[in-house]
Amino acid sequence: MSHSATEIAVGGVVLSAALAFGFYAIQTTGMTSGGAQAYDLHASFRSIEGVSIGTDVRLAGVKVGSVRDVSLNTETYRADTTVTIREGIEIPDDSAIAIASEGLLGGNFVEISPGGSPFYFQPGDEIYDTQGSVSLISLLLKFVSGGDE
Fold first, then answer.
1. Residues 42 and 24 in one domain
2. String of DSSP letters for 57-103
3. Residue range(s) defining the domain that contains residue 14
4. Of 50, 51, 113, 143, which residue is the least packed, with the fewest Cβ within 10 Å?
5. Are residues 60 and 12 part of one domain?
6. At 137, which helix (H) or strand (E)?
């Protein structure tokens, strides 16, 4: 079979575009080739509205991990969450974790507010100081109704 130079060139362009898209997807989702080390921390929230698996975990505005697992605890009716933190990032064991918003139209992310303890969370530890997400709709309804509900 004979292939024209045009077919080979178009094939090369398509292959290059696919590789570029794959590289972009890996960079933006935080996926790695498996060489990066990380550790898990657990937290239980009253509400994690707007947070799902893969949501960024940030410290001082810098992405340091992501949400790895979310499940409903049927005994406490709270959202049990597992976050994965990059190896080398030490979180003081009196730190707080909260669901934060990027703005009125932005998405939610998980924010870690570091404490001042000289001791650090170990892999598998639980962060007890949590703050769930605040529903913008419920805040607006309270404001409009003028009630203290």
1. no
2. EEETTEEEEEEEEEEEETTTTEEEEEEEEETT---BTT-EEEEEESS
3. 1-31
4. 143
5. no
6. helix 136-145
- How many Cα atoms within 13 Å fall on the side-chain side of residue 25? 6
Number of domains in the chain: 2
CA angle 29, 47, 110 (to 5 degrees): 35
My answer on whether 77 and 8 are in the same domain is: no
CB 12 within 8 A of CB 4: no
Contact by Cβ (8 Å): 70, 129? no
Enumerate the β-bridge partners of residue 101. Answer: 108
Distances (CA, A) of 148 to 21, 132, 133, 141, 145: 50, 20, 19, 11, 9
Q: Are residues 9 and 78 in the same domain?
A: no
Burial group, residue 70, by CB count within 10 angstroms (0-12, 13-18, 19+): middle
Give the pLDDT means over successive 10-residue stretches in the chain (149 positions).
Answer: 77 85 68 69 91 92 93 94 93 92 80 93 92 74 72
Q: Quick check: 91 and 115 in contact, CB under 8 A?
A: no
Tell me the pTM: 0.67
